[in-house]
Each structure stands twice: as C-alpha cells, then as structure tokens.
Amino acid sequence: MDAKRIAAEKATAYIDHEMVVGLGTGSTAYWAIQKIGENVKRGLRIQAVATSIQSENLAKALGIPMLSMSMVDSIDLTIDGADEVDEAWNLIKGGGGALLREKIVASTSKNLFIVVDERKLVKKLGAFPLPVEIVTFAHEITQNKLRALGCIPVLRMKEQHPYLTDNGNYIVDCDFGSIDHPEELHQIINMIPGVVDNGLFIKMAAKVIVGYQDGTVIEM
Ligand SMILES: O=C(CO)[C@H](O)[C@H](O)COP(=O)(O)O
Description:
Blueprint: H1 3-12, E1 20-23, H2 29-41, E2 47-50, H3 53-61, E3 75-80, E4 84-85, E5 91-92, H4 99-107, E6 109-117, E7 130-134, H5 139-148, E8 152-155, E9 157-158, E10 161-162, E11 170-175, H6 182-190, E12 195-198, E13 200-201, E14 207-211, E15 217-219
Parallel strand pairs: 1-2, 1-3, 3-6, 6-14
Antiparallel strand pairs: 4-5, 5-13, 7-11, 7-12, 8-11, 9-10, 14-15
Helix pairs in contact: 1-2
C-alpha cells in the first residue's frame, strides 16, 4: 500500500464518536478523508471542518457532515500532511496552497496529527521552498521585502497566471536554503506588511505518523 495512505489511515483510528475533526489538504490528507468517509458510512458520528475548498468538496461527496469555520471554536483532532518535518516537529506546509486555512484549523485544534511518508522527514527545514501567502495588490513590494530577508522568492503560477489561494491571495515560494532558526524566521516574515501568513508551523504537531515504502508505519 502507498506510504502516504498507510500513515493517513493510521491517524483516523484516533477519531471517536462526537468529535469535531479537522480535514487537511493534499495527497496524504486525501487518504484520511477517504477513510473517514468510509467510517461515517459505517456509522461513525462526527462533524468536520475542512482546510480547503478541495477537501471540503471531497468530504461532502463522501457524506461527511461538515461545519464551516465560523461555526467552531474548538476542534478535537486535525489530520493533515506536510512538505517537511524536522527533528523538533516543526513543519513546512503550503505546497498545496492551503497554508492559511491549515494554520487556522491547526491552531484551533486540541491535537494536530501530521501524516507523511518517509521522504518528508528532514534534519533541517528548507530544501522545500517556503510558501508565503501574500496579498495580490502589493505583491511586488512584498516580494522585494522577502528577497531582502535573503531568499529567492518565486511567484507561484498556474496555467500562465499567478496561482490564487482559496482566500484570493498569491503564494510566493521562498528558497531560504537550510533554515537554522525556523521560529525566528516565522515571526520576521509575518511582520512584513502584505504577508498574510507563511508555511512554517512551529511546535504545532502533537503526533507525527510516518508511512514507509516497505509498508511499515511509525508513530512518533
Ligand atoms: O500543506 C499542504 C497543502 O497546503 C499539504 O499538507 C502538503 O503540501 C503535503 O502535501 P502532500 O500530502 O500532497 O504531499
């Protein structure tokens, strides 16, 4: 079985009746949502909140009862993927462009379980360029300020046009090289006017579940 799928399905075993569950975004979270959908069909009573329109549509199609973000002030468990996980469980997220909603949902969750395949584990963050969500109308100014922090910013494109997030913003993928101080970098980036949020998730994960190519899964 696919390494992402094993990790994602393992995480769903922690979901219990009456929980409010946060649904992540991406190809790993996809497998968690599929499994939750199966379990709901078998009688699991939960309500869920999605971190993207894509995940919301998938969950609705599978019959998972959904709540909008404005309807919840606490989420029991969120299952989401990541682009990189370091040894302190700091994360880079946003490869799928959903980092803002993912961070809002994560910050509202009692527990954030990160599901990844083994390739996402790194000693230091930064081989994956850091996604930064920025407002559209001042994107050149904002990109210049990001560049001044020492990165190479690249405006994310989709079919010849700048990629737009679910929130109507742009994403800039910022290559900082190896990130020595993720917590500081997180704060400095978010101080720039025009930045909505960045894909560093600092000390937010309560558990990391890793799927391996050989079919094993390890919970950390
Ligand atoms: O942060 C994300 C989306 O914004 C995803 O969790 C991250 O990109 C990992 O995706 P995948 O599971 O497809 O590898």
